[in-house]
Write a structure and sequence with these properties.
Length: 555
């Protein structure tokens, strides 16, 4: 039986879910699903100085927001294995998935390396290390830490056991002995083969004096024990490949079975550096808070470093978007739809560039492709999501939406809400802009006479024109032919065009000035000086409400 294909993501608890990490998670997940395999997430929390406990929960929440749901590993799902420090859980057979709970595994591996003289304790003082580094500036040759230790300390001390080393008052760190008379050929499945001369490499720390492993030992133990088939990680790790291939081989033999892919970095919009805060937002939580849809974001992220080589960009059809009920299943569908075209050949060996305008385009496309039910659901989920948030930025968004819409659910029928939202759907980029246009329907405020007044006319003339056009509209209401399907987004545009034809014909035939009539009508119907067209509003309101607004304005 061939073993199950397994990939993993191994975040460190140092901050938020970075855009680059989210992209990597997506690719890792794609590789797993393409191979009918398993995707798991392991927490690499061995660097105790950089650790931010609360970041782990935030990370998992942002992943859930994007519907990046691993099959195994750390999770928010309640299981028997609660980790109190992070307030998270774990699931799967290969746990614990939190490195700080796995120290005995690293110590056991370290002990084996010491016994084989492939690892030794480094007793050099900071001054002695500085001296070696200064000398290296002149010789340009790699530092020989083993020899430097052997010159100064008894051989027996260098190879003392893990327990003894960690208890030693001089606080030595354990080094892996990499510098040897050997060349090693490393394969990256994406980038190809490179041969390294290990004589030119330096020995490196694998176990710190606090008993925690460095990444180099941590991953080598865990990826073996957790049966990882393919490590997909950032290209910044590529130079460490000779270290990693050697330590894997020394610990688990030549056939350890772990392969590598190093993903090129994501560049900022300008310049040739890895995208950072300076180039725009890299915090995925912020994108979700602003109302970027998981579907759009995932679809966009896939294109950061992958390209099917065709014109196709949207990996969820309108039909799928509107018939698949949950965000999670829709994102899974996107992943499923990408898989046949997700091949090593289609992954770029060079860096992708972030482009906010493109992400915005995806978001608008998905918003526009939603029918009124799907959109109303999405809005509801988004507002629920915002309500769980305490940060000032998200409170501002909530306040803005509330200012736009007021208590819209209590004051309007469900059908009217859906129709009104179509105005937003046609124009907004993110859900945080909700209400910008629909407010004129859902939260109407009677305009002042000054606002209703068309610039060339007096208030009286404007009101009389309003009455006249109001009467005309009333007379037409029962004779015009509005489209039937009120759930498709084209409804508003089509209904607006019916009203536009009728009204413009009337204005033309009776030689009436457009502004003289349409300005007061629009301001009256919308309650605003800047608003969608009066035709769109007429397409949405029913006869009674339109009449009610006009009557109030005329008074
Ligand atoms: N903890 C490492 C990091 O956050 C993981 C690298 C890897 O994927 O192996 O960079």
């Amino acid at each position: 039986m061939t073993p199950i294909f397994r990939t993993r993501q191994a975040p460190s608890p140092t901050g938020y879910l970075h855009l680059g990490t989210a992209r990597q998670m997506l690719f890792t997940n794609l590789f797993a699903k393409k191979n009918n395999g398993v995707w798991f997430v392991r927490l690499e929390d061995t660097d105790r100085s950089r650790l931010q406990a609360e970041s782990v929960k935030n990370l998992l929440e942002a992943m859930a927001g994007l519907s990046l749901t691993p099959d195994e590993g750390i999770t928010l799902e309640v299981t028997k294995t609660h980790n109190e420090y992070y307030d998270i859980y774990q699931k799967g057979e290969y746990g614990p998935y939190i490195q700080s709970e796995r120290l005995s595994h690293y110590h056991e591996a370290a002990q084996r390396l010491i016994s084989e003289k492939k690892a030794y304790w480094n007793f050099l003082t900071p001054e002695q290390k500085d001296e070696l580094r200064n000398f290296k500036k002149i010789t340009k040759a790699p530092i020989d830490y083993l020899k430097a230790n052997q010159d100064k300390y008894p051989e027996l001390d260098l190879f003392m056991s893990v327990d003894e080393g960690l208890a030693n008052t001089q606080k030595p760190a354990l080094m892996f002995h990499l510098q040897r008379d050997e060349t090693i050929t490393c394969l990256d499945e994406l980038l190809g083969k490179t041969t390294f001369d290990l004589n030119l490499e330096e020995d490196f720390v694998i176990l710190k004096s606090d008993g925690f492993p460095t990444y180099h030992l941590g991953f080598a133990v865990d990826d073996h024990l957790m049966k990882t088939s393919l490590i997909i990680r950032a290209q910044e790790w590529y130079p460490s490949l000779p270290k990693h291939v050697t330590i894997l081989k020394d610990l688990w033999g030549q056939d350890h079975g772990i392969k590598f892919v190093h993903l090129p970095v994501i560049l900022g919009e300008t310049g040739n550096k890895k995208m950072s805060k300076r180039d725009g937002n890299v915090n995925m939580t912020d994108y979700l808070d602003q109302g970027y849809l998981a579907e759009a974001t995932i679809n966009y992220l896939a294109f950061l470093g992958w390209n099917p080589g065709t014109e196709k960009e949207l990996y969820l059809s309108e039909d799928e978007l509107n018939t698949i009920k949950t965000k999670e299943t829709r994102v899974q569908k996107i992943i499923e739809n990408i898989i046949p075209e997700f091949t090593m050949e289609n992954i770029s060996k060079s860096s992708a560039r972030f482009n906010l305008e493109k992400l915005n385009w995806f978001n608008r496309e998905y918003i526009k492709a939603m029918n009124s039910n799907t959109f109303a659901n999405e809005v509801s989920n988004y507002l629920d999501h915002l309500a769980t948030k305490k940060e000032e930025k998200t409170q501002d968004i909530q306040t803005q939406i509330h200012q736009n819409l007021g208590d819209y659910k209590a004051n309007n029928s469900e059908e009217l809400i859906k129709l009104a939202f179509m105005l937003d759907q046609n124009r907004i980029t993110t859900l945080s802009e909700l209400g910008t246009d629909s407010k004129c329907i859902l939260n109407w405020q009677q305009p002042t006479l000054e606002d209703i007044k068309w610039k060339k006319n007096t208030i009286e003339e404007s009101l009389s024109n309003l009455k006249e056009i109001g009467d005309f509209i009333s007379s037409k209401w029962n004779t015009i032919d509005l489209p039937q399907d009120k759930s498709s987004l084209s409804y508003v545009t089509e209904a607006a065009s019916v009203w536009e034809d009728v009204i413009k014909q009337w204005l033309n035939e009776s030689d009436k000035g457009i502004g003289d009539y349409l300005w007061p009508l629009r301001v009256c119907l919308s309650g605003q000086k800047r608003s969608p067209s009066p035709f769109e509003i007429l397409g949405i309101l029913d006869q009674e409400e339109a009449k009610h607004r006009i009557d109030l304005c005329k008074k």
